[in-house]
Amino acid sequence: MDLKGLKEIEALAAAERKEYFEETRRFCENRRAKWQTNPFILWGIAKLAPLFRGFEIEYEGLENVSGDETFIFLCNHSNSHDFFIIRETFEKINKNVTPLGAWDGLNPITRLWFRLSNVTLIKRDSKQSKERGILDYCSRILHGDNGFVFGEATWNLHSIKPMQNVKAGVTEIALITGKRIVPTIFEYVEVDGLCKKESKLYKKCIVRFGKPVAISTERSIFGQTRELQNIMEKMRREIWFREGIVRDKLSDIDIDRYINHTYLKKYKAFGFQYDTSLESQFLLKGESGVENEYCLDEQRDFVPGFLKK
Predict the structure, then answer these.
(1) Burial group, residue 52, by CB count within 10 angstroms (0-12, 13-18, 19+)
(2) Cα dist. 90→86, 128, 144, 267 in Å?
(3) Among 64-73, 92-101, 227-236, 273-282, whose mean pLDDT is lowest?
(4) What is the CATH number of the domain that holds 87?
(5) How many domains does the chain have?
């Protein structure tokens, strides 16, 4: 089965969109992804995960995801710890989960870790890989797994923006599977000063689950995606306000701290390095382009740009 493009789907009448997604759902229900992970391996990774962090996790909104309902969790993406936090979190709330991840940019060992953690991997620059991956992913969800999607498609390293633009693929997945979306925030509260090691960078991680959102075939895919992003930005700003994190404007940013912390995230995290030149092409650009990082230019001004190694 070939998936239609999102703009093509958007142009359909509501009845036609409903029929298309019902047909795609039936196809996915009769399809099984080849890769299956042993539950014991998933349990073992969840138990090992605390070894890769030096901070505590606080949970909020657990009442929004209680019970047996299967959801799609839409989350912001900040750093290399997200992978381990997913495993710990879903072991805690007793839900099976398959994250959607990118094949490109990962070294062979990391790819193996992702595979063992029931990640559905796609190659972001391949239309065929993305279509096959979405169909596999929806099949896993329809056969009992919860979905987990980083809607920004890569890390948000911006100094003041709570979110990069969320891609509408998550809304498409919700329409295919008929599942509600749970807006989810991983907020890593960073230490106040400079650090020498990435392992000392965070005070804690706050995992916050919002109320599930139902997606409709009768409304715009792109409009509903923007609404989800607005919910998540509000959730994150609420956490910032409560934790005393001031990131309203560029002048609020401690430049030395930002550069130190961002450098450690990109180049000193365990088992991973962030390739800006690769990752930046997958950010969804707005009318004014996209900014994701800041650095010091030759005049020592704090400007948008790649923080180099």
Answers:
(1) middle
(2) 6, 30, 14, 28
(3) 273-282
(4) 3.40.1130.10
(5) 1
Residue 294 lies in a domain: no
- Bridge-based pairing of strands 302-304 and 202-209 is unpaired
List the domain range (segments joined by +) for residue 129: 6-251
Is 194 part of a structural domain of the chain? yes
Name the token pair of 183.
């807006």
User: For the CA atoms of the chain, what is the radius of gyration?
Assistant: 19
Q: How far apart are CA 231 and CA 244, in angstroms?
A: 20
Token reading at 144: 């009992």
d(CA 238, CA 82): 20
Task: Return d(Cα 188, Cα 156) in angstroms, integer.
Answer: 12
The Cβ of residue 241 has, within 10 Å, a number of other Cβ atoms equal to: 10
Cα angle value 280/161/87 (rounded, 5°): 70
Question: Quick one: pLDDT at residue 54?
Answer: 86
Q: What percent of the chain is predicted at pLDDT more than 90?
A: 69
Judge whether 43 lies within some domain: yes
- pLDDT range class, residue 31, cuts 50, 70, 90: confident
